[in-house]
């Protein structure tokens, strides 16, 4: 992946026909959103509320959700080689699965944890960042779900996002 365009992701979305049978509603290749310095985000799907409404006809993979919304977000995040992340907090419960390469999970307590292909992180509204310190691309599958604000010692923590998605 180093000197070539990021691969597209095939996204298959199901729905129902008039007879209430399951059908393939969409089957298409999705490209990453270009970014000057990465990471690159590929929007796969989102829902603007919980529980999600599965009856709509809008392609919610095209929704501009920002980093978080009031429902769910599923995306692929590609990190170029030797790219530092930015520490941030979203008010979400995140399931992060490393599909390719490895990243370093950095937390605001100073800890750094290497996460490799096939491993996953459950991210619970903490200040965190992702660094790719290798010479290869890293690819993460990220599922974000709206959460209640964390409360520590009676203090309600808020989102802290020093960048735009």
TrEMBL record:
Domain of life: Eukaryota
Annotated InterPro entries: Cupin_2, OryJ/VirC-like, RmlC-like_jellyroll, RmlC_Cupin_sf
Record-linked CDD domains: cupin_BLL6423-like (cd02231)
Domain named Cupin type-2: residues: 76-143
PANTHER family for the chain: CUPIN TYPE-2 DOMAIN-CONTAINING PROTEIN, SLR2101 PROTEIN
Protein name per its UniProtKB record: Cupin type-2 domain-containing protein
Species of origin: Aspergillus nanangensis
Taxonomic lineage of the native organism: Eukaryota, Fungi, Dikarya, Ascomycota, Pezizomycotina
């Amino acid at each position: 992946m180093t000197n070539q365009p990021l691969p597209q992701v095939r996204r298959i979305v199901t729905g129902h026909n008039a007879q209430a049978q399951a059908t393939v509603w969409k089957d298409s290749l999705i490209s990453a959103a270009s970014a000057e310095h990465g990471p690159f985000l590929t929007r796969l799907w989102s829902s603007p509320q919980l529980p999600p409404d599965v009856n709509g006809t809008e392609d919610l993979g095209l929704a501009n959700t920002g980093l978080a919304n009031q429902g769910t977000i599923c995306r692929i995040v590609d990190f170029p080689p030797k790219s530092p992340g930015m520490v941030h907090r979203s008010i979400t419960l995140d399931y992060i699965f490393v599909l390719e390469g490895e990243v370093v999970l950095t937390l605001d307590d100073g800890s750094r944890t290497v996460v490799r292909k096939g491993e996953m992180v459950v991210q619970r509204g903490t200040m965190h960042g992702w660094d790719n310190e290798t010479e290869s691309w890293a690819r993460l599958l990220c599922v974000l779900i709206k959460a209640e604000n964390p409360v520590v010692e009676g203090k309600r923590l808020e989102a802290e996002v020093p960048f735009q998605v």
